[in-house]
């Protein structure tokens, strides 16, 4: 399990993700995995939660959709979600992705959902609810922080609550 949190705040979009990889519910296999990546010539940032192999498969499919639709993030996301629902191979994938570029911030799920957040925060993974609540609170109360700092602190807070989230945090922003 893991936690990924993306935040749009003061004209910035940033993402943070922890590095914990677990096997089952008892064993930490790795503490420093990179679940935040840049794709499409560094124009798009993604963060994923779920099975690593499944996430890499989705990343590849998503990047192909971005190429097909000339970098149109929303169109690529909708097309990926449609394929994910229809294709028998993709239907078996267990992962979720947060994706963003300079203007759009989206969640893509295997249920065919492409969600643009109301409150400019999206979080996924085992600690996602904790991270999202923390980030929304910081934004609502005018935290004197950058988007990157809010995302990182949200993961840090989640790691204090969720045993599947650690403090080895990777951040990125465009």
Question: What key phrases describe this protein's structure?
Answer:
Ntn_hydrolases_N, 5 helices, 11 strands, four-stranded antiparallel sheet, alpha+beta, 174 residues, ATP-dep_Prtase_HsIV_su
Number of domains: 1
Overall geometric form: globular
- Termini separation (Å)? 26 Å
- Count of beta strands: 11
Name the CATH superfamily classification: Aminohydrolase, N-terminal nucleophile (Ntn) domain
Mean pLDDT: 92
Organism: Bombilactobacillus thymidiniphilus
Function: Protease subunit of a proteasome-like degradation complex believed to be a general protein degrading machinery.
Subunit structure: A double ring-shaped homohexamer of HslV is capped on each side by a ring-shaped HslU homohexamer. The assembly of the HslU/HslV complex is dependent on binding of ATP.
Keywords: Allosteric enzyme, Cytoplasm, Hydrolase, Metal-binding, Protease, Sodium, Threonine protease
Task: Compile the SSE list and pairings.
Elements: E1 3-9, E2 12-17, E3 21-23, E4 27-30, E5 36-39, E6 44-50, H1 52-68, H2 73-86, H3 88-91, E7 95-100, E8 105-108, E9 114-115, E10 121-125, H4 128-140, H5 147-161, E11 170-173
Antiparallel strand pairs: 1-2, 1-10, 2-11, 3-4, 5-6, 6-7, 7-8, 8-9
Descriptive account of the structure:
Helix 1 crosses helix 2 and helix 4 packs across helix 5. It contains 5 helices and 11 strands. Strand 3 and strand 4 form a beta hairpin. The protein is globular and about 40 Å long. The model has no long low-confidence stretch (mean pLDDT 92).
């Amino acid at each position: 399990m893991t936690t990924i949190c993306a935040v749009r705040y003061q004209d910035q979009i940033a993402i943070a993700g922890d590095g914990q990889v677990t096997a089952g519910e008892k064993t930490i296999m790795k503490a420093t995995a990179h679940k935040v990546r840049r794709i499409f010539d560094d124009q798009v940032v993604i963060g994923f939660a779920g099975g690593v192999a499944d996430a890499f498969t989705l990343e590849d499919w998503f990047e192909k959709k971005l190429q097909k639709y000339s970098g149109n993030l929303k169109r690529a996301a909708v097309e990926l979600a449609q394929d994910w629902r229809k294709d028998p191979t993709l239907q078996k994938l267990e992962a979720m992705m947060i994706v963003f570029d300079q203007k759009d911030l989206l969640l893509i799920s295997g249920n065919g959902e492409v969600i643009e957040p109301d409150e400019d925060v999206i979080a996924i993974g085992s600690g996602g609810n904790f991270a999202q609540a923390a980030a929304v609170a910081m934004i609502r109360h005018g935290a004197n922080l950058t988007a990157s700092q809010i995302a990182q602190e949200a993961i840090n807070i989640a790691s204090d609550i969720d045993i599947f989230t650690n403090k080895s945090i990777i951040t990125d922003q465009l």
